[in-house]
Amino acid sequence: MRAHKLECPFPKVYPSRLSPDDTCHMWLAYNQAIDAWREDEVPIGAVIERGGEIIAAAHNQVESTKDPTAHAEILAITQAAAAIGDWRLNEATLFVTKEPCPMCSGASLMARLKRVVFAVADPKMGCLGGASALHELPRINHRLEITGGILEAECRELLQRFFREKRQTSGPGVDETGL
User: Fold this and answer.
1) Phi/psi at 45 (5° precision)
2) How far apart are CA 155 and CA 117, in angstroms?
3) Buried residues in 124-143 as b, exposed as e (16+ CB within 10 A)
4) Is 99 a catalytic residue?
5) pLDDT-above-90 percentage for the chain
């Protein structure tokens, strides 16, 4: 059980969907991260876009489900596959507020995503260029397009503030997921 639930001081953002671009989609992932914070989860959010349509939206649910695989990316990939009726997400793009970990990077490859866009690089656990580059292994049979740094400042501030406030209420030892 977590010691103290924090109130999220960040408002959601409602971007114009009239010109859907990487920034617009990352704002939607950011809103998912806000939802995570409000549920006392590490504030990481993800959306998956395909053909201009959002086919999945999720946020971390590790604490509420007691499931170490309930990362935003995994949940979004599962939703997207169900939405299109196929595990191959070849034409889809994952937008996530923090660089995917080894598990989520692997799932992105296995789902055959076309592209992964993330906000904050993770030099300790990120596996799409941060700590390692899983997508660049020479023998893998699928290549991902990677874009980093979209809304980096906003997503970094959200994550850092969450962990700063957790440390103040819970004491030292709070996992900062590489930030």
Assistant:
1) -125, 155
2) 13
3) ebbbbbbbeebbeeeeeeee
4) no
5) 72
